[in-house]
Amino acid sequence: ISSLAALSLQAQAPEALRVVNLLQERNLLPPGPIPAPTPCLPQDLQKLNCNPEVFRCTLTSIPQTQSLLNKARLPLGLLLHPFKDLSQLPVVTSSSIVRCRSCRTYINPFVSFLDQRRWKCNLCYRVNDVPEEFMYNPVSRSYGEPHKRPEVQNATIEFIAPSEYMLRPPQPAVYLFVLDVSHNAVETGYIDVVCQSLLENLNSLPGDSRTKIGFITFDSMIHFYNLQEGLSQPQMLIVSDTEDIFLPTPDSLLVNLSECKELVQDLLKSLPQMFAKTMETQSALGPALQAAFKLMSPTGGRVSIFQTQLPTLGIGALGSREDPNQRSSAKDVQHLSPATDFYKKLALDCSGQQVAVDLFLLSAQYCDLATLGCISRYSAGSVFFYPSYHNQHTPAQTERFQKDLKRYLTRKIGFEAVMRIRCTKGLSIHTFHGNFFVRSTDLLSLPNINPDAGFAVQMSIEENLLDMQVVSFQAALLYTSSKGERRIRVHTLCLPVVNSISDIFAGADVQAITGLLASMAVDRSVTASLTDARDAMTNAVIDSLTSYRTSVLAIQQPGLLAPACLRLLPLYILGLLKQKAFRTGTSTRLDDRVFAMCQLKCQPLAYLMYLVHPSLYRLDTLINEGPQNIDDHIISQPRVLQLSVEKLIREGVFLMDTGSVSFYFWVGRNCNPVFLRQVLGVQSYADVPLNMNHLPELDTAESGRTRAFIGWLREQRPFYSVLHVIGEESPLKSIFMQNMIEDRTESALSYYEFLLHVQQQVSK
């Protein structure tokens, strides 16, 4: 009888709550991308809701009380991608921006109009007057319909701000490039790439007629460049006393780009040769950063630092903390926190002057990213990492560096920004994740904001949400555009409130939960230990499935049971445990580990998921897989496969998409020679070259189909992923295999063993 009763229960439950026995169902992965769950809201509200790629919550149904949330044992938080490149963004110019007089919430689609003249705030419930000019709708050119204004019809909107939103006149775009020119740096050849990329993209730097640019180079000394209009060539000024940094000619080191473009181009053409013969091995990074801070303080702007080794001289000098013998020890990983607070303190000084610092680390040796990364983390900058970089020896890295630089130099940028996240009365935000400085309890200081930055926040329920059907969250980003306009981008999300634990589970967003847990685990490994962080992630799975078993399931059944909406949680958490940031027992360089942690903290969720669970596709059978018409191109859509060696058959060709860094194009030993000829242009498996990074453009249907599919994957991300063609003898095979997270390794459980471990704990 019990199984019949269970069947009838399941028939009533929504698909999200379908009971899945994880130990029996092996094919859990959906064939394609996993959509965010849709909140259970009335249709008229839901159609106005915020795009989940910009703003989403770990729970799309918010528990009525903290005790109900505690009982569900699921994390509550928001994930944001606030400055994402959007194809459609309504922009409103208005002399007065309508906001709640009490809590300063911007008017949005989820407020209620009591009548034409009054609106009720959806965050604090205050009743506000509708100002006279809001009665006129600029879109329909009609009067007396405030509820049809664009602000009330769009959950994401941008305002051109009037003068009261400025503390000072909007700053110009200011770009300062600070380059390591020590012997080590010159050896890598990176300087040629940076100068070439700048020459090619100089006219595409975001800005206007006021844009300023400057350069500093450094080794054991700091070199400034006078680029003042009227000079026949750039003039190098050397400051050798790194103990007491001063600016030799303060007014001509940052110059107007359009007025001094020829001098800037001259400098970029001559820089790579200037240090070609250098024997300087020291690196005075700290003093160079102090110089950059002094130069940028009056205006604010962006500092781009290129560094190839540990800083060895002057303030901020560091010693090596890595013991290569400890790279794979099962004991705890040391030195995940900074060795000195110099870089954090300087970053906070920068933040106060609206300066962000981006760090490009190109190095084969240990550079102590845990310490250097602070300069970007607290100034709202970004970190780019190219381990073992060398122009000639690592062509794939060089290509990625070139493509990343082009995106970096030309992508949209916001200056002197602040972001505030507000939520309905009763909810409170207590922890923020990402790169920024928290200026007051809920104001994030972002000297720069870029379209590739993600943020996360943790929340709690401070007062019961008893009489509420819905709650709302609003993120407002105030920034100066590169054209000198003060703008406010506002995103508003509305979610239902529920009072049953099964409804909480039904609305769980497994990817958002994974993303938030990843950020929390990074913090935990730095404040406590890596072991603590790993245990906390495993416990998150055990706790939520225990709660589901005891509080949601009416009938106890054997096995490890999960609701369908959380069926991938154990797999994703296992992926995190095997990810570079958190893995143990596999040799992992300290900088690689720290960089992986940086990525997890500040990648938007869509890109973060590649790091947790790469996508594996079979390519030699593309013809039969559901082609989709995308922008008038037919693109095959192969299904996503499990990350297990059993899926790799020797007759097949597979593509693994690991997101930001690489595609691995795996060729099986017994692959059909016709495919090899038509796609790779080689006669047999033995002819596949070891270091192939591009597919030849062959005039065959197979080649077109394969390149179209990879091109389509590439178009969906801002960064460039290099393609590596690999065979069974390839040196990259081990990296490819490390991503097979369902398989057992010497130091880590297989997916099935992990499920057994979780089941044992859940059944206690």
UniProtKB/TrEMBL annotation:
<dbReference type="InterPro" id="IPR006900">
    <property type="entry name" value="Sec23/24_helical_dom"/>
</dbReference>
<feature type="domain" description="Sec23/Sec24 beta-sandwich">
    <location>
        <begin position="414"/>
        <end position="498"/>
    </location>
</feature>
<keyword id="KW-0963">Cytoplasm</keyword>
<dbReference type="InterPro" id="IPR012990">
    <property type="entry name" value="Beta-sandwich_Sec23_24"/>
</dbReference>
<keyword id="KW-0862">Zinc</keyword>
<dbReference type="InterPro" id="IPR007123">
    <property type="entry name" value="Gelsolin-like_dom"/>
</dbReference>
<dbReference type="Pfam" id="PF04810">
    <property type="entry name" value="zf-Sec23_Sec24"/>
</dbReference>
<dbReference type="InterPro" id="IPR029006">
    <property type="entry name" value="ADF-H/Gelsolin-like_dom_sf"/>
</dbReference>
<dbReference type="Pfam" id="PF04811">
    <property type="entry name" value="Sec23_trunk"/>
</dbReference>
<keyword id="KW-0479">Metal-binding</keyword>
<feature type="domain" description="Sec23/Sec24 helical">
    <location>
        <begin position="509"/>
        <end position="609"/>
    </location>
</feature>
<dbReference type="GO" id="GO:0030127">
    <property type="term" value="C:COPII vesicle coat"/>
</dbReference>
<keyword id="KW-0472">Membrane</keyword>
<dbReference type="InterPro" id="IPR006895">
    <property type="entry name" value="Znf_Sec23_Sec24"/>
</dbReference>
<keyword id="KW-0813">Transport</keyword>
<keyword id="KW-0256">Endoplasmic reticulum</keyword>
<feature type="domain" description="Zinc finger Sec23/Sec24-type">
    <location>
        <begin position="97"/>
        <end position="133"/>
    </location>
</feature>
<dbReference type="InterPro" id="IPR041742">
    <property type="entry name" value="Sec24-like_trunk_dom"/>
</dbReference>
<dbReference type="GO" id="GO:0006886">
    <property type="term" value="P:intracellular protein transport"/>
</dbReference>
<keyword id="KW-0931">ER-Golgi transport</keyword>
<dbReference type="GO" id="GO:0005829">
    <property type="term" value="C:cytosol"/>
</dbReference>
<dbReference type="InterPro" id="IPR036174">
    <property type="entry name" value="Znf_Sec23_Sec24_sf"/>
</dbReference>
<dbReference type="Pfam" id="PF04815">
    <property type="entry name" value="Sec23_helical"/>
</dbReference>
<feature type="domain" description="Sec23/Sec24 trunk">
    <location>
        <begin position="170"/>
        <end position="409"/>
    </location>
</feature>
<dbReference type="GO" id="GO:0008270">
    <property type="term" value="F:zinc ion binding"/>
</dbReference>
<protein>
    <submittedName>
        <fullName>SEC24 homolog A, COPII coat complex component</fullName>
    </submittedName>
</protein>
<dbReference type="InterPro" id="IPR050550">
    <property type="entry name" value="SEC23_SEC24_subfamily"/>
</dbReference>
<dbReference type="GO" id="GO:0000149">
    <property type="term" value="F:SNARE binding"/>
</dbReference>
<dbReference type="InterPro" id="IPR036180">
    <property type="entry name" value="Gelsolin-like_dom_sf"/>
</dbReference>
<keyword id="KW-0653">Protein transport</keyword>
<keyword id="KW-0968">Cytoplasmic vesicle</keyword>
<dbReference type="InterPro" id="IPR036175">
    <property type="entry name" value="Sec23/24_helical_dom_sf"/>
</dbReference>
<dbReference type="Pfam" id="PF08033">
    <property type="entry name" value="Sec23_BS"/>
</dbReference>
<dbReference type="Pfam" id="PF00626">
    <property type="entry name" value="Gelsolin"/>
</dbReference>
<dbReference type="InterPro" id="IPR006896">
    <property type="entry name" value="Sec23/24_trunk_dom"/>
</dbReference>
<dbReference type="InterPro" id="IPR036465">
    <property type="entry name" value="vWFA_dom_sf"/>
</dbReference>
<dbReference type="GO" id="GO:0090110">
    <property type="term" value="P:COPII-coated vesicle cargo loading"/>
</dbReference>
<dbReference type="GO" id="GO:0005789">
    <property type="term" value="C:endoplasmic reticulum membrane"/>
</dbReference>
<comment type="similarity">
    <text>Belongs to the SEC23/SEC24 family. SEC24 subfamily.</text>
</comment>
<dbReference type="GO" id="GO:0070971">
    <property type="term" value="C:endoplasmic reticulum exit site"/>
</dbReference>
<feature type="domain" description="Gelsolin-like">
    <location>
        <begin position="637"/>
        <end position="710"/>
    </location>
</feature>
